[in-house]
Amino acid sequence: MASPEFSVHDLPLLGGRVGICPIPGRGGNYGADLERLLRWRPDRVIGLTSDAERRRAGALVLPADLARIGVIYDQVVVTDFGAPDPATSERLIALSRQVREELSLGGRVLAHCFGGCGRSGMTLLRFMVDAGEPAHPALMRLRRARPCAVETNAQLIWATDGVLDHLD
């Protein structure tokens, strides 16, 4: 049985879908969580966790498990409750361009962090803003799908290029 807290929350973007979830295995059942993640049918998964966090969740094999079935896995490490450093920011902004292209072709892109809230929410919010959505409505739409999305002001500032600078 999948971890009770594991589910993929999703919303449409640019003709495709973006999803947000915690790391598979966080609740103790990596296999069942992975199965639930795969039922969502991602084309790309963006993991914002460190190797240590993946180890703690029992998900060190997640990139290999996804690669085996043709799902792209991007590991972009951001510190828990943090925002990207300059090098990581550049990488995520470049990834945003790729993701927007994939979504415009009907693709499905999933972001996960450890809890499936802050870092993954920050990343998806950035993709939404980069896709042309106004920052505040995008945040509200994302939070309707995942109420805990974007946890800190630093995450909000990064995701919105400073248009929004504090959480309500």
List the SSEs and their pairings.
Blueprint: E1 9-13, E2 16-22, H1 30-39, E3 44-47, H2 51-57, H3 62-68, E4 72-75, H4 86-104, E5 108-113, H5 118-130, H6 135-145, H7 153-159
Parallel strand pairs: 2-5, 3-4, 3-5
Antiparallel strand pairs: 1-2
Helix pairs in contact: 4-5, 5-6, 5-7
Which features characterize this protein?
5-stranded mixed sheet; 15% strand; alpha/beta; Protein-Tyrosine Phosphatase, Chain A
Number of E strands: 5
Here the CATH topology equals Protein-Tyrosine Phosphatase, Chain A
Q: Specify the CATH class.
A: Alpha Beta
Low-confidence stretches: none
- Sum up the overall morphology in one term: globular
Overall description:
The chain has 7 helices and 5 strands. With about 170 residues, the protein is α/β, with parallel strands linked by helices. It has a single domain (about 10-160), classed as Protein tyrosine phosphatase superfamily (Protein-Tyrosine Phosphatase, Chain A, Alpha-Beta Complex), CATH 3.90.190. It has a 5-stranded mixed beta sheet, with helices on both faces. A hairpin with a 2-residue loop joins β1 and β2. α4 (about 85-105) packs across α5 and α5 (about 120-130) packs parallel to α7. It is globular. The protein starts with 8 loop residues before the first strand and ends in a 9-residue tail after the last helix. The relative contact order is 0.18. The mean pLDDT is about 95.
